[in-house]
Amino acid sequence: MNVRAGAVSEGAPALVERRQQVRDRVEQALKLLRPYLQADGGDVELVEVKEPEGIVRVKLLGACGGCPMATMTLKGGIERALKEQLPEVKAVEAV
Fold first, then answer.
1. What is the set of domains in the chain, with CATH numbers?
2. I want to staple 37 with a disulfide (CB 3.0 to 4.6 A). Which of 42, 49, 61, 70 is the partner?
């Protein structure tokens, strides 16, 4: 038996729980931002939270998807707000 593999499997439930907690917190933060995006005909969908890298991947929807200001919305709005609320978030990427 591989001791290292056994150690990883014992920690796996805690890791899964932590990832779900971070994902839930990101969803809550995005929920606060949605009304601003929806007011301009857009929205945002959480695609993935990469832990431990701290990378959040989102999909911009509606008017936000093709807007020339999408990068500014992503970096200056969504990323800034998530970083302020969740110190574990290091970057936000669009997919």
1. 3-94 (3.30.300.130)
2. 42
